[in-house]
Amino acid sequence: MAMRPALLAALLALTSASATGQPRTGAWRAIGLAPDDVGFFGAVAATAVGPDGTLYAAGPFTEDGGATESGVARWDGEAWTGIGGPLASSVSYLAAGPGGVLYAAGRFDAVEGVPARRIAGWDGTSWHSLGSGLDGFVSSVAVGADGALVAVGSFAAAGGVPAAGLARWADGAWAALPPGGPPQPHSAVFATDGTLYVSGRTSAGENRVARLRNGVWDALPLLPEGAYGPLVAGPGGTVYAVQWVGDSPGIAVWDGSAWTSLGAVPDAGGLCAYTVTADGAVYTYTYRSLNALNPPDCSRLSRYAAAAWALVDPFAYGIGSLVAGPAGVYAGGGFTELGERRAVSAALFSGDAWTALGDGLDPDGD
User: Fold this and answer.
1) What pLDDT does 294 receive?
2) Phi, then psi, of 4 in degrees rounded to 5
3) Cβ distance 182 to 201 under 8 Å?
4) Contact 168, 174 (CB under 8 A)
5) Could you give the CA distance from residue 128 to residue 121 in angstroms, rounded to a whole number?
6) Alpha-carbon distance 158 to 169, whole Å?
7) Of 6, 106, 219, 242, which has the highest C-beta tally within 10 A?
8) Which residues, at least 6 apart from 128, have a Cβ–Cβ distance to it below 8 Å?
């Protein structure tokens, strides 16, 4: 199945994942009602959770039921608030840092009328460019505990600085990461101990993960059939990656010295999204099979906990991203209901059932 890695990468390019917070027993909930002038319209394209537990979502929004514009909104546990003005085009990735700092990456070239190629930052007051931006595609963004941003992708330069797909933004300037990382990087994440991990394809055609410590890259042992992003940080400095177990997707965890496979996700033909909670529970969103007559149709939400996989919901259609937060696991996407209850574009999973709050977010503004 030579095309499988490419299919996996394409599906996971929609995913934004994190590992902050701890789930509680409960239910799926629609995340409140938007104020009259801020609401979701269509699919949430990216999500992120900040160190303070704030949820951020990017996607097409409306104002007063008017024109649809791409933008970002913040959920503080009680209400949605729009962040700044509209972006010129779509946002594919979000990364949240300390102090309310937020970064957005995607196929845009301006924010609030200010030129910003492929990437922009929110400082709590307004959107701003990061130097002259990036000259190519961004496939992942990650923020460390010190607020430094790492961008990964197919770009050749960051802010005019040669970067070969790996760049760091700190103190108002771009810098290339030290040489020796994956030559075709795909995903990046900071572990809770501050170590940077990057997945990608090597010059030998292997899909593996490397870490950067004290300015030196160290390639992790190769997993059978390779290790794929997106990488997700787990508790205690652990890092999670996607692997293939036979013909099924699986998850592996790196504990700082060795990989441990969690095995294949049961009855899964492909993976669309996954995340890891603060207590180490893994949530995956998968489809059963892929062929010319049966295209990817993800709907199966599964959980790995207590050393076993369990199917949580086989009919959770329309989810595009999963991200863990202090109240549970947030889902974003293009759905209008979950578990036969209305929940439009964003919802919270805090147990083993679905429950909508109120009438959800009406894409028609009614």
Assistant:
1) 59
2) -60, -50
3) yes
4) yes
5) 5
6) 9
7) 242
8) 111, 114, 116, 120, 121, 122
pLDDT confidence of residue 24: 32
Q: Checking phi first, is residue 360 left (phi over 0); if not, alpha (psi -120 to 50) or beta? A: left
Tokens 């104020």 belong to residue:
35
* 121-168 per-position pLDDT tens digit: 998 888 999 999 999 999 999 999 999 999 999 999 999 999 999 999
What is the CA angle 149-110-92, rounded to 5? 55
Dump pLDDT digits (tens) for 302-344.
999 999 999 998 989 988 899 999 888 998 888 888 777 777 7
CB burial of residue 113 (10 Å; 0-12, 13-18, 19+): exposed
pTM of structure: 0.86
Q: In what order do the strands lie in the sheet with 184-190?
A: 184-190, 196-201, 207-213, 216-219
What radius of gyration do the chain's Cα atoms show? Answer: 19
Q: What is the mean pLDDT of the chain?
A: 81
- H, E, C per residue of 162-231: ECCCEEEEECCEEEECCCCCCCEEEEEEECCCCCEEEEEECCCCCEEEEEEECCEEEECCCCCCCCEEEE
Q: How far apart are CA 78 and CA 95, in angstroms?
A: 21
Give the model confidence (pLDDT) of 194-240 as tens digits.
999 999 998 888 899 999 999 999 999 998 777 888 999 999 999 99
- Alpha-carbon span 195 to 211, nearest angstrom: 7
Query: For the chain, what is the total number of helices (H) and then of strands (E)?
Result: 1, 35
Report CA 93 to chain centroid distance, whole Å: 7
11, 272 in Cβ contact below 8 A?
yes
Instruction: Flag whether pLDDT at 41 surpasses 60.
Output: no
In Å, what is the CA distance from 320 to each residue of 147, 156, 249, 346? 26, 29, 17, 10
Task: Tell me if 174 sits within 8 A of 167, measured CB to CB.
Answer: yes
Q: How far is CA 31 from CA 40, 79, 365, in A?
A: 11, 8, 16
Give 3-state DSSP helix, strand, coil % of the chain, rounded to 5. Answer: 5, 50, 50
**Which of these, 203, 195, 251, lies nearest to 227 by C-alpha position?**
251
Count of beta carbons in the 10 Å neighbourhood of residue 216: 9
